[in-house]
C-alpha cells in the first residue's frame, strides 16, 4: 500500500521550498487576500458550519460552543490574519554574527522550519490561525482537524487558498488532510523526513497520543500544573489580587494556577483572606494538614490532588517553610509550565526563578500571563512544555529554525 | 520487569537539578580536577585500554586505531577538559529581554537541558569530551559507549568522578551505563520523561537505529552529502585551492565535499584543472554527461552516485547552468548539511546562500570549516543535521534550552 501521506507531503515540501524564499510582501498579500475572502465567503462558511452542527446533534454544550461559528467569529478570524500580516517577518533575521581570526564572517540566520503538520480538534478558528502563522513563518502546513468540524474547516481553507492564489504563492503551502480516516493521522505521525514538525492542539488524549506515536519531532503542550508561591515577605494586597487572577480569571486555560504554596510564617494571617477571596468567586479547595490546622473546614488534599491539573474552580493548598521547600514541591509535582512567586524580597525572588526548571517563572505577576499575546509575540500557535527547540508561548520566531551563512575570501582549513 | 533505566535516570535527574544550580567555579573546578586525575591515573587508563585491545584481537586497523590510547591521547583528553573549563558558562545567559506596555519585564534565559543520554562507539576520548561538555553545560549525562572500549571508558569515568567529588558536585551527574546489554540502549531510547535528549555519535548504523527507535528527542548527525558549487564568476585559483581542501584535506569527515557542481560557462577552462589537482592527490571521479563531454576519460555517474556520501577520495561531478540549477541539484540529492559556492559575484553568492535549506552555507570557503572549533565554539559534541533545536556544530550554547523569567509589580491579566 502506498503511504497516503506521500503525495500530500511531496506537494507540501515543494511549496515549502518556494515559500521559504517568498518575500514579506507576497506573504502579507496572501494573508490580506485570505482575510478578504473570509469576509466575502462568510455565508458559505456559516452554512458549512451549520451543516457540521446539524450532523452532530449529540455534542455537549462546551464542545458545541467551540465548534459554532457566527459572523463575529468569522470577522475575528479575518482580523487575526490581518494582525499576523502586520507582524515582522521572522525568517531571514540575523540572530548572531561574528568574525573568526581567519576572517570568516559567520552569521546565524532564522529560517523557516519546512513542513508543519497541525493536528487539532473542533475549533474552526484553528484552521485560519495555524494557516496564517505557518504561512507568515514561511513554512507549509498540513492541517488535520477533527471530523466534527470538517465542513467548516474546508470552507475556511477555501479562503486561505484564495489568498495564496491571489499572491502568486503555491496553494499546496496550506493543505487539508484529504481524508478523515484516523489512519491518516498515524501516517502524519510517522512521516519522518517528510514532515518536519507536528503540533497537536487539543485535549490531553489527543496530545498524549501524538507524543507517544510520533516519529516526527513534536512541539506540544502537555500539562499546566502551575504553582503560585506566596512568600513570607509578600505584600498581602498584592498576593490577594494576583492569586485571584491567577486562579479565577479563567480556570480552564493552561496558565491557570492549580496549587497555592504559602509560607508558614505568613499563612495564619494571609491564608484565610486568600481562601475568602477565592471562595467568594466559587472556588473550592484541597488543603494539606498544615493549611487545615489554620482552616480546619478545608477538605484534605491527597498526594494525587497535588498532581492534578484541575482546570476548574479548585485549588490545592500546601504550607511550606521557605523558597527551597516551595521549589522541592514544584519539582515533585509540577509540569515545568508556569510558576509565580509573590514577595517583596528581590533576592528570594531571584533564587526562586533561578531554582525553577519551568518554561515560565514570574515574580509578582499572575501565572495567566503565560500567553504569546501577553509576551508580545502578536499571536501564538500554542504553548510548548517540552525542553527542546522552544518553551512557553510559540509565536512566529519559535516557528523558525536557523542556519549559518559563512562569508569567506578563499579560506581553506589547515 | 523493572525498567533498568529507572534507578540510573532518577539519580541523573536529581544530579541534574543540583548541577543546573551549580556556579561556574564549581563546574570548572570539577573539570580541572578531572583533568588532573586523568594525568595521575594515566597508567591505569593505558592498562585498561591494553586489556580492551587484547580482548578484541580481530579488530580492523582503523577501528583498532580509534580504540587505542597512548600517553599523548590521554594528555589530549586532559587538555580538552581544561579547554572546556576555560569557556564561558552557557547557562544563565540572558538571551533576550524586553518590557511590555503593562510594565512586565520578560527575560529569556539560557538553561541546562537536564539529562542527556550519549550513545557512542569505540573512541575512548568521547567519554571525557561528552562528560566535560555536558557538565559545563549544567546537564547530567548517561554515557553508553561501545563494548569494545568498555574498560577504557570505565577507567576514564573514574577520573571524571574524581573531579566531581573534588568539587562537591554529585557523582551521578556523569554516569556510565551499568550494563553492556543492548537492551539497555533500547531502554535509554524509550526513556521519555526521564532522559531529555539523546545524542548518538558513531557510524550510520548506530545513528539510524537511534533515530528510528528513540521516543526521546534526538540531536544527531545523519549524513554530510555536501556540495561545492563553482560559479561562472569564480576566481580560478581560489576555486582550485578551496576545492582541493574541501575534498581532500580529510576525506572521512562529515564536512568533506562529495559533489562538485560547476557552471557550464566556466567548466571547459576550469574543470580540467580541478580534476588534475585532485587526481594528483589520489582522488577519483564520477561525472555526468556534460562533464564527460569535456573530460571523456572520467567514469560516468549514476543517479545513485549523486546520492552517495563517499567519505573517501571520490568526487561526483555535475555541470549546471547557473545558481538555480545548482540549488535544484542540492535540493534533490543533498542532506542539508554543508554547501559552498565559489564566486566573485556577491549577489549570486547571497542568492545561493538564501536558497539553501542546509545547516551551513559558505561563500568562498571550504566546506571542511563546518566544525565547532572552527566556528569558535571552543568544543563541540557533534554536528546536528535535523531542523529542530540546533543545526550544524553543537557546542555548549546548543546544549542548553531556555526559559522565561518575568518580573512584575503585581500585574494581573485583564
TrEMBL record, chains A, B:
Q: Where is the Aldehyde dehydrogenase domain?
A: 9-281
Endoplasmic reticulum in keyword set? no
Name the enzyme's class. oxidoreductase
Which biological pathway? Amino-acid biosynthesis; L-proline biosynthesis; L-glutamate 5-semialdehyde from L-glutamate: step 2/2
Task: List, alphabetically, the SUPFAM superfamilies matched.
Answer: ALDH-like
Q: Name one GO molecular function term.
A: glutamate-5-semialdehyde dehydrogenase activity
| Protein family | Belongs to the gamma-glutamyl phosphate reductase family.
Which Gene3D superfamilies does the protein's record reference? Answer: Aldehyde Dehydrogenase, Chain A, domain 1, Aldehyde Dehydrogenase, Chain A, domain 2
* Official protein name in the record: Gamma-glutamyl phosphate reductase
What Pfam families would the database entry show?
A: Aldedh (PF00171)
Q: Which GO terms describe its biological process?
A: L-proline biosynthetic process
Q: What is its EC number?
A: 1.2.1.41
Q: What does this protein do?
A: Catalyzes the NADPH-dependent reduction of L-glutamate 5-phosphate into L-glutamate 5-semialdehyde and phosphate. The product spontaneously undergoes cyclization to form 1-pyrroline-5-carboxylate.
Compartments where located: Cytoplasm
**Gene Ontology CC:** cytoplasm
Keywords on this record? Answer: Amino-acid biosynthesis, Cytoplasm, NADP, Oxidoreductase, Proline biosynthesis
Amino acid at each position: 500500500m502506498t503511504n497516503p501521506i506521500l503525495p500530500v507531503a511531496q506537494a507540501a515540501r515543494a511549496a515549502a521550498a518556494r515559500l521559504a524564499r517568498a518575500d514579506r510582501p507576497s506573504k502579507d498579500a496572501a494573508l490580506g487576500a485570505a482575510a478578504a475572502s473570509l469576509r466575502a465567503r462568510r455565508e458559505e462558511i456559516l452554512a458549512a458550519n451549520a451543516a457540521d452542527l446539524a450532523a452532530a446533534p449529540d455534542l455537549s454544550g462546551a464542545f458545541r460552543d467551540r465548534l459554532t461559528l457566527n459572523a463575529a467569529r468569522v470577522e475575528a478570524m479575518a482580523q487575526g490574519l490581518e494582525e499576523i500580516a502586520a507582524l515582522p517577518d521572522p525568517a531571514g533575521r540575523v540572530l548572531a554574527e561574528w568574525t573568526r581570526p581567519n576572517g570568516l564572517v559567520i552569521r546565524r540566520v532564522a529560517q523557516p522550519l519546512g513542513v508543519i503538520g497541525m493536528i487539532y480538534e473542533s475549533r474552526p478558528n484553528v484552521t485560519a490561525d495555524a494557516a496564517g502563522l505557518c504561512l507568515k513563518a514561511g513554512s507549509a502546513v498540513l492541517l488535520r482537524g477533527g471530523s466534527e468540524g470538517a465542513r467548516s474547516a474546508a470552507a475556511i481553507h477555501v479562503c486561505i487558498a484564495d489568498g495564496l492564489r491571489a499572491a502568486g504563492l503555491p496553494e499546496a503551502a496550506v493543505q487539508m488532510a484529504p481524508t478523515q480516516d484516523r489512519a491518516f493521522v498515524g501516517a502524519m505521525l510517522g512521516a519522518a523526513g517528510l514532515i518536519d514538525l507536528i503540533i497537536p492542539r487539543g485535549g490531553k488524549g489527543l496530545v498524549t497520543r501524538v507524543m507517544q506515536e510520533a516519529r516526527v519531532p513534536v512541539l506540544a503542550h502537555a500539562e499546566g500544573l502551575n504553582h503560585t508561591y506566596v512568600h513570607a515577605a509578600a505584600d498581602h494586597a498584592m498576593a490577594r489580587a494576583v492569586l485571584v487572577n491567577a486562579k479565577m480569571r479563567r480556570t480552564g486555560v493552561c496558565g491557570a494556577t492549580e496549587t497555592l504554596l504559602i509560607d508558614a510564617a505568613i499563612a495564619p494571617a494571609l491564608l484565610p483572606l486568600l481562601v475568602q477571596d477565592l471562595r467568594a468567586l466559587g472556588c473550592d479547595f484541597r488543603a494539606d494538614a498544615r493549611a487545615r490546622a489554620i482552616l480546619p473546614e478545608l477538605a484534605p488534599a491527597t498526594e494525587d490532588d497535588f498532581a492534578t491539573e484541575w482546570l476548574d474552580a479548585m485549588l490545592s493548598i500546601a504550607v511550606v517553610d521557605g523558597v527551597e521547600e516551595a521549589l522541592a514541591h514544584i519539582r515533585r509535582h509540577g509540569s515545568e509550565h508556569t510558576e509565580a512567586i509573590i514577595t517583596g524580597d528581590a533576592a528570594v525572588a531571584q533564587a526562586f526563578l533561578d531554582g525553577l526548571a519551568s518554561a515560565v517563572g514570574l515574580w509578582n505577576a499572575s501565572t495567566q500571563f503565560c500567553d504569546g499575546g501577553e509576551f508580545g509575540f502578536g499571536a501564538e500557535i500554542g504553548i510548548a512544555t517540552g525542553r527542546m527547540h522552544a518553551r512557553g508561548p510559540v509565536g512566529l520566531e519559535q516557528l523558525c529554525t536557523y542556519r549559518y551563512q559563512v562569508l569567506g575570501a578563499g579560506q581553506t582549513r589547515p
